[in-house]
Design goal:
By secondary structure, this protein is an alpha+beta fold. The chain has 4 helices and 2 strands; from the N terminus they run E-E-H-H-H-H. The protein has a domain at about 30-100.
Length: about 100
């Protein structure tokens, strides 16, 4: 699987934006942008999209999907704060474990 962090030409999804005057213009989402939006939406944490964008730029896609899968399988009743907070914790744990090796 290609490392999306170094793939600047890999554009997907045409996405409509509006500038400050309400005029529409088109832009293209990168794989990182689309992945960040998918993660934020799947974890019901769209308010923290900036966090997901930053982790999508820092970690390989397969690591993020692995952690996302773990969060989604975690029983709701055992999550103390939110799925987004658990995702953040597991990302930090992964980084700490990765640095030990």
């Amino acid at each position: 699987m290609p490392d999306i962090r170094n793939d600047n030409d890999n554009k997907i999804n045409n996405f409509d934006y509006r500038n400050d005057r309400g005029k529409e213009f088109n832009s293209f989402l990168t794989r990182e942008d689309a992945l960040a939006r998918d993660l934020a939406a799947g974890l019901n944490d769209e308010a923290n999209l900036g966090f997901y964008l930053s982790v999508c730029r820092k970690y390989p896609e397969e690591v993020l999907w692995m952690i996302y899968g773990r969060v989604k399988q975690f029983p709701e009743r055992k999550i103390k704060k939110s799925k987004g907070a658990l995702f953040n914790y597991l990302i930090q744990k992964h980084e700490k474990d990765d640095n030990r090796n």
